[in-house]
Amino acid sequence: KDIAESWAFDMSPNDFPVSADRGAVNLSPSYYKLPATGQSVEVESKSYSIVAHLSDLPFLRTVTERLPVNVSLYYNKSTNFKPDSSRVDIYGEQLAAPAGKTEDVGIRLESKNGRFAVRVNRYETTNSNASSTQINAASIGSWMQLTQNFANVFGYNILPWGYDATAAGQTGSSSDIFNGITGVWQPMRYNFHYFANRPLQAGEILSADGAWIVSPALEQKIIDNTRTFQRAVDPRFWQAWRIKTFGDFGPSTSDVTYSVPTGFAITEDNVSKGWEIELSAQPTKNWRVLFNASKTDARRTNIGNANMREFMDLVAAALKVPDGVSKLHHYWGTEDVVTAGKNWFDGEGLAGAPGSEWRLAQLVENTTVPELREWRANLITNYDFDSGRFKGISVGGGLRYQSDVIVGYPPMGNPNDPTTVEYDLNNPYRGPAETNLDLWVGYNRRLSTKVNWRIQLNVRDAFQSKELIPISYQPNGTVAAYRIVSGQSFSLSNTFEF
User: Is 280 exposed, middle or buried (0-12, 13-18, 19+ CB in 10 A)?
Assistant: First the structure.
């Protein structure tokens, strides 16, 4: 039984308290301190195991004595946890501690002389409330901050962008304009505008230099859509991410900022189950063989808690374009700049694409986890010479096998409408299966009654050539990154035992 408690205090530039007399940031310890109460989590775990050697049970001994093998049965059930009280969700609400449960059932058969044995084990492990790494957390805050920041710019002409491109003497064809009064270049106002390569429509304005078509009606529609979306977001989000709403989302006198909540995590449940087989044999006194193999099926479920799903669904709904033009926007409002939807789904102009990552996470829910090899097998053998001309020499080898692995999925949908993004789960990009061979030869000799000497040469990845193995793919199917295979390697060890 464990109890964990945590305290956290975080700030963003918008939160800095400023003294009334000097206009300076208040750095008083009475303000910058941990809260009196924190977050607490209490978790309890239990585990037990049962092993039954049937040949040792009195009421079965007479029956098992007739069998050619000894039989043992295994059963294990255990729970575990991580007493972590520091994690919060997208609304700043405390998350439950990660917890796991494992159940194993197995049988072991062993020859009466102990030289041959086989064990088969079936296991299932579940992990709930684990931290997921599938979504770019920081980009969520950046996207929300930029959405509000530039809606404010559009709506309130916030300095230093408050210069109207349609005013006489100013140019809309550059990111800067020349102010004839001050004699300096100054940033142009971020009107929502198009290149002047089409006729004016009703209500539109041509810029002073004839380079831009400004659409006040379209700009207002974008602002209205953004405000509708922002007001629909749970107020706990803005508080948790330290994004100031300035009343009813504006006006602000400077850029809106954000900070990722301390301990922010996206949760998921994991289920892993499979088979494990192990064979050990000693056919002769000097020859030993060991073989093991495993088959694993691992899946992610319940990605994101209820608050996370609510928020992500709200964003996706806001990015739909019912009339073809009323899109949320980031940055300046020119037609050559990506929309907020392209940021969200494609990552253009933004470090990360939380919408695309979230969409993929939902699509692959309860499917086999990518980057997991379903089959692994190992064979090891060694032979020791204890007489004759080869006395003291040992030779052996190991064979390692891994089945192929999923390293990505090709995208589907309309590339001009990121809200239609899908992934072809039936035809994934795969990394190759791999087989590796290790060899060794050693010599052992007693130099005296107290000193034993052993020298051994190992060859790892014998006959393996240098090559590149793909580990991720671009959406168009070309390899994005490789893993370097350095080829075979040699090592020589020299050991003296006293």
Answer: middle
